Predict the 3D structure of the following.
Amino acid sequence: MEMRADDRAAGMDQPIARRDFLNGIAIAVGSIASGVLPDMATEVLAGEAATQAGRGYYPPSLTGLRGSHPGSFELAHKLQRGDLPLQTLHPGEIYDLVIVGGGISGLAAAYFYRERQPSGRILVLDNHDDFGGHAKRNEFELGGRIELINGGTLGIDSPRPYSVIAAGLLRNLGIDPVKLDATCTKKSFYGSIGLGRGIFFNRETFGSDKLVVGVGTMAWAELLAEAPLTPRVRTDIARLYEAKIDYMPGLSREQKKERLARMSYRDFLVHVAHADPGVLPLFQARTHGEWGVGIDAVGALEVWPLRFPGFQGLDLDEPGGAAPQSGATPHMGFTASGYAATGGSYRFHFPDGNASIARLLVRSLVPSSIPGRSAEDIVTATADYSQLDRPGAPVRIRLNSIAVSVRNVGEPASAREAEVIYSRGGTLAAVRGKAVVLACWNMMIPYLCPELPQRQKEALRYPVKTPLVYTSVAIRNWRAFRELGVHDIYAPGSYHSSARLNQTVDIGDYLSVRSPDDPILVHMVRTPCKPGLDQREQHRVGRAELLDTSFEVFERNIRDQLTRMLRPGGFDPAVDIVAITVNRWPHGYAYEYNPLFDPYWNEQEQPHVIGRAPFGRITIANSDAGAGAYTDTAIDQAHRAIEELVATEN
Ligand SMILES: Cc1cc2nc3c(=O)[nH]c(=O)nc-3n(C[C@H](O)[C@H](O)[C@H](O)COP(=O)(O)OP(=O)(O)OC[C@H]3O[C@@H](n4cnc5c(N)ncnc54)[C@H](O)[C@@H]3O)c2cc1C
């Protein structure tokens, strides 16, 4: 790595020995010489620990580039380019069911199949080195204790109430989200010690760096008094939040909604609420977390139920009524604004997010792999990966195994088996099952299964998953946050558009950090969208960018951003940052239709409905198949895929 003038101050040259303090893993000397926090995903998975049966194989504690980690996806891209010649292989193993994809949907499919066929033998294949898919656990040993955070899927929540099936699965796994929320979630902790929410204005976007703190507790004029904004922009922001003005006089509610459904929130602010365009940089990233794109590509009616500013004088019904689903505003699949329309579902999340659900599923499928009995003790239980793929076991979970071909053996209509070819460690192998469930990603399926009908393949290609990054940064202490009185920062113009201290959840033996003198994790979110394009195109461009970004670039940006936000509180990146995990998700959230860009289709014409049709002995699960980026969707789709198989089993 070439060192830049300010790299030393940012800590880019820090000796890697600091990492040993974290997790006791011996780290290659080459990384010290290079001066970069190493991509430990690649380094640690060497030698014996490289196979899931090996001693020391424990992916949750790997740092560096995680999520779609190096080595997990390259073959899929080769397949996509037509560069992967496949030969006929003798099937080495035969199962009742083979599942491609070991995320929540694939694991739930295994669970539902076992309910129907208790003696059924199942193989789950996943291309990653860990199970869970997006439900990824990041585990750090910090200051003698385990600190957990989600590397992807966080909450057991959804814009709609969980279905009987999805809620039933949680219950069977011992999860009572309402009770756990009441007893374990400590939402008010940071508030109770005087920390609030802030906004960081960066100099590249706003002219100078400035952190203001007090969102939600101070009047906007007061909060923005020292923000690098013109007086007109400050006044307009305060007006948007606080004034009750009808910006669409003379129109009925339905006419207003009809117009709002067809314009972006950006256009609403400028052309309807007549705000100075100088307000836009502040709001641009407000939709990143839910939609993965900015306000240029999210409809105004979509954000109204989420109480975005500007709507309070429009008399649009109280958000929470049936308004977002009304005839003027057709919604297909899930949509984040459904939270307001239905009240949403649960609130609870585990310290490692829905990785705990994946781990509970794995414990139920392969009991010897994770000790314990409850939803509380799963949090601190250590998984033994060597147990996941034992010969003779009724359920086997094979990691680092990417499927490259899936076909019915014989004609789809009369086939009694399906075959999967997968690659593991550079070697291709074939395996057969009486059936195969594809719990992977829709856009991959046409390449795996070229024999699918053309219309179905086109439908499967339609959705473009949202690229995004969840970064976990371990810091030595959080005195700077306390000094600045902040725990959660929105940073609309910065590389990561938000940064917050790990949320406080106490469950079982796991107790969240309370003292600012102790190490903690900071959660940062980056959404590599490209304003101005339609949503799917923004996702394509963002995905390419993510795959092209090295760990070094992430690290430099993380150090720079945290320093500029927190230095006034005494933060020193060279001393305070002790580890970084970049959970990179080029194929993140399932695509949810966007009324600004997608035509309105009746249910049977919707691409996800056409795409999930069974094909001989092959059925399709995964959250794309429900057009909803939620865990309940992943579970419901798994259930449907299994029921389709069982219905045709003889
Ligand atoms: C950053 C992030 C945050 C999220 N937060 C939430 C949240 O808070 N709440 C919520 O409900 N939902 C959230 N989601 C949505 C999440 O996608 C779903 O909740 C759910 O985890 C999806 O499960 P899945 O099994 O359908 O997909 P995935 O989790 O993507 O699992 C599919 C698996 O199949 C694998 N696969 C793909 N192709 C192949 C192949 N050819 N061979 C082998 N394996 C293959 C994939 O690599 C992956 O491991 C979030 C998603 C992301 C990315």
